[in-house]
């Protein structure tokens, strides 16, 4: 049995085979997930687990060099946007805002999409993997 880190075997597996510039997404319970992309469904009920709880755990185990967010989060969910900014504060990180429609298109390129129980609008993020050496 693992002593620490991510216990979910699917998330742990996906993160372990990701290379530099590969992407994974974390989304609210309403984010459509393309059929061709692995779905890791953690949603138990509305709000459980929360988007931020899952994002905090993922980023403890993953080097992130770039995040992609929906432009709409600025107006529609400033609370979550603030929490995301706080989570990544002090890190060298590229932040890109695209339309929600474009973010959904970009999930097609992700190794997996993690579905949370989050019910607040535009609580979706694409994390691009960084390099832990060099």
Number of domains: 1
Terminal Cα separation, in Å? 32 Å
Radius of gyration: 14 Å
- Please indicate the percent range of residues in DSSP E strands (runs of 2 or more): 15-25%
Low-confidence stretches: none
Amount of helix? 25-40%
- Main beta sheet: 6 strands, mixed
Tell me what you see in this structure.
The chain is an alpha/beta fold. The protein has a single domain (23-129), classed as RbsD-like domain (RbsD-like fold, 3-Layer(aba) Sandwich), CATH 3.40.1650. The chain has helices at 9-17, 51-61, 73-76, 78-88, 100-106, and strands spanning 23-27, 38-41, 64-70, 94-98, 112-115, 125-129. It is globular and about 40 Å long. The model has no long low-confidence stretch (mean pLDDT 97).
List keywords for this structure.
alpha/beta, 6-stranded mixed sheet, RbsD-like fold, 134 residues, 5 helices, 31% helix, globular
In short:
The chain has 5 helices and 6 strands; from the N terminus they run αββαβααβαββ. It is of the alpha/beta class and 134 residues long. The protein starts with 8 loop residues before the first helix and ends in a 5-residue tail after the last strand.
